[in-house]
Specification:
single chain, binds ligand 9Z3, 8-stranded mixed β-sheet, alpha/beta, two-stranded antiparallel sheet, CoaB-like_sf, Rossmann fold, catalytic activity
């Protein structure tokens, strides 16, 4: 049995992992866009943050019909990106395709569907078309929408926001590595803010079925095209028929065997990212007793600047900042009275004051 990526040194795991996959088709285009974007902001001596956002998928088949996903909507990433822009950063927004985006996130869901903000004005007397009026924003939303629109336009017209999508965890890894290396000319003006929910487990390409996994037995002449030898999915000995006596014998039980995704934060901090840059990662847990321990362990293991811990159930209202320097652990909470009013939660409270503090510390460490 070949060794698991988790047992290898980070640099070796990197080369094994990236050699297994073809780079994403969009990568050359994304790299060209990012290069131009970064050059522009290096020239202006502007800070650039790479914000990662949304969930990564783990495909079960190479020609993917099914995949494992996670809950992340991209609220944290999209909201934080707006605050970075407001603070004068240029933002590379590496996000899960179709997840929330800065600015448009305000009008994206059924609870805040953009159509509910619109109205049809009465036709203007004397205008050629008397059967319809113009589409306008309803009076009560004018101020809020104008404000969002102005910020969005400003970011767009001044080239402050670059949107780059990914879908799978492999695509995410390729994009993260490329972006970090491209950001090297930025030196201490580079910041990494890793809010994407990255899958911890995946099926290595070599053990992935090529075609759609079949749920029922195929005649012998069709066998061999789907699951591969030593497959992570539905090997012959993994077909269960006896689990439930009432179940027809032709129904297979799908057994999925996943490997740990290599911890590339190590490579980002020690290899890919520019010297003097700041790295902020997130830690998500559901068990409150584990959160601080896991966040602290991540900070010690990867020696970066800040881990922001959050619990699935309270992530909109509280986060914990784990830092190498005192106070080491600091909770930030949205006061109860303000919770229902803010869909973006702690970002609205914290702003970027904390990140800025950490940034100063990171810069003084390197100067
Ligand atoms: C987070 O913890 C983010 O805050 C959330 C945001 C995903 C909870 P939403 O998108 O949720 O606003 O709905 N991200 C998790 C980061 C993560 O997966 N970290 C990995 C790890 O801790 C790699 S750095 O191992």
């Amino acid at each position: 049995m070949s060794p698991s990526l988790g047992d290898m040194e980070p640099a070796e795991a990197e080369s094994v992992y990236f050699n297994e996959y073809p780079p994403p088709k969009a990568l050359p285009k994304h790299e060209a866009l990012a290069r131009a974007f970064i050059d522009l902001h290096v020239e202006a001596n502007r800070r650039v943050v790479l914000v990662t956002s949304g969930g990564t998928t783990v495909p079960l088949e190479a020609q993917t019909v099914r995949f494992i996903d996670n809950f992340s909507a991209g609220t944290r990433g999209a909201t934080s990106a707006e605050y970075f822009l407001q603070q004068g950063y240029a933002v590379i927004f590496l996000h899960r395709q179709y997840s929330l985006l800065p600015y448009s996130r305000h009008y994206s869901h059924s609870t805040n569907c953009f159509l509910d903000f619109m109205d049809e004005a009465p036709p203007v007397p004397g205008a050629p078309n008397q059967d319809h009026g113009s589409i306008v924003v309803r009076d009560e939303y004018q101020d809020q929408m104008r404000d969002v629109l102005r910020k969005y336009r400003y970011a767009k017209q001044n080239n402050r926001l670059l949107l780059l999508p990914f879908t799978t965890v492999a695509e995410y890894m390729f994009e993260l590595r490329s972006m970090a290396k491209l950001m090297r000319p930025l030196g201490p003006n580079a910041l990494f803010y890793l809010a994407a929910a990255v899958s911890d487990f995946f099926i290595p390409r070599s053990r992935m079925a090529e075609h759609k996994i079949q749920s029922s037995e195929l005649p012998p002449e069709f066998q061999g095209g789907g699951a591969v030898e030593d497959s992570a999915v539905g090997g012959e000995d993994e077909i269960y028929t006896g689990e439930n006596e009432a179940k027809p014998a032709s129904q297979k039980k799908l057994v999925i065997n996943l490997d740990p995704v290599p911890k590339f934060l190590h490579r980002l901090v020690d290899g890919w990212a520019p010297d003097g840059s700041m790295v902020v990662s997130f830690k998500l847990e559901t068990d409150p007793t584990l959160l601080v321990y896991k966040a602290r362990t991540a900070l010690q293991r990867y020696s970066h600047h800040l881990v922001i811990g959050n619990l699935l159930s309270t992530r909109k209202w509280e986060v914990v900042f784990i830092t190498p320097d005192p106070p080491h652990e600091r909770w930030i909470r949205v006061p109860k009275a303000r919770r229902s009013k803010s869909i973006s939660g702690v970002e609205d409270q914290v702003g970027l004051a904390e990140i800025k503090k950490g940034e100063k510390a990171a810069n003084s460490e390197t100067s």
